Amino acid sequence: MSIDLQQFSALQKASKDSFFEQKKLVKQVMLGKTVLCSHCKQALKLYTPEQDELTGIRCVKGCTDIALDFV
Ligand SMILES: [Zn+2]
Predict the structure, then answer these.
(1) Residue 2: what pLDDT?
(2) Is the pTM of this model over 0.70?
(3) What stretches of the chain show up as alpha helix (H) in DSSP?
(4) For the chain, what are the domain ranges?
């Protein structure tokens, strides 16, 4: 299999963008704003160590699942 360099850079850009989007999303949820899952349109919920062993931001259906480490 050969790697198409143009495709590869497009892929890298996409993941960089989604990383940025994710950071923005996390910040909004942390601030207590209602953010909807881009897939199921359900509100995302922040899980802190007091609430769940698996900390992070998730929607009810689990299509959005961002693991966060609380230190
Ligand atoms: Zn979802």
Answers:
(1) 66
(2) yes
(3) 5-30
(4) 5-67
